[in-house]
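So, could you explain the following?
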Amino acid sequence: MNNRIGKQTVILPNKPVIIETASIAGVKEGEGPLKDYFDRVLSDDTLGEKSWEKSESSLQRETAYLAINKSGFMQSDIDYILAGDLLNQCVGAHYSVRDLDIPFFGLYGACSTMSEGLSIGSMLVDGGYANRVMCMTSSHFCSSERQFRNPLEYGGQRTPSAQWTVTGAGCAILAKDGDGPKITHITTGKVIDKGITDVSNMGAAMAPAAIDTLIAHFNDTGRTPDYYDMILTGDLGVIGSDILTELMLKEGFDLRQLHSDCGKMIYDIEKQDVHAGGSGCGCFGSVFCGYIFNELRKNNIKKILVMATGALMNPTVIEQGESIPGVAHAVAIEN
């Protein structure tokens, strides 16, 4: 049976179930409008560790244990972990899972990593290669700043288009059966580069990839935006979201009443100093595994297309004058 429809989309006939999630958010994120939807809000972003990188690994590890405990399963019941983060060689994930006795696939999709994990995990379950899969990601403001921008001690001024890297983590457990919202389609994104070189404008760099994936999804499935109750992007923030809705309207797709973005939802943009909103792997991870999963469980959202977006660059290539490629992976979920 050929489960591919169109160029970039697969249909999942067995409809893997999201049976449980867990989310942990940092101090600043716990002051935002979604504070009541995280399983835990940190009182100390260091988590008692001696470095920011160790803090992020602890953040991801605690989220994994929390998801397993909430699900009622044992570690031995999980067939695979799919996890990644923003740090070099994905050390956040690598060090977080070393105490877990579960086979591991490391992923790097920058801020798109959570939807990449949901995509691959769903196909593993749907294809009969796994009964249960954990998909997990994280980001930490301080570890990301050290790697991608300047040391915090430098105190560099941010431009209005800059986004705030979320300190947070999310973990979702997928299964072949059980109660929960079901994943029905996966649209895998292509790497899209429109020549953006401003590392302080991630929204503009990632929006073209989101547009390309959305158009592919609608063309492949024959659906229109109003099939969904919500079309959720991960970290486009204020600027990227405006670009997305404006250019999609020119392509004949009106998202204005349907589109939401985790980078706009996780903070109070007017009251919290986050400039153009949130970003980072943990932005989509914590919002989806917190607020969105809660709304799906309550049936307040029945059909949703979720799509985290990633900027696929590192500081070295940017210093060499390269532009910033983007990617976005879409996952259709229904109750």
Notes: The chain has two domains: 4-175, 182-334. The domain at 4-175 is CATH 3.40.47.40 (Peroxisomal Thiolase; Chain A, domain 1). The longest strand covers residues 17-25. The chain has a mean pLDDT of 94.
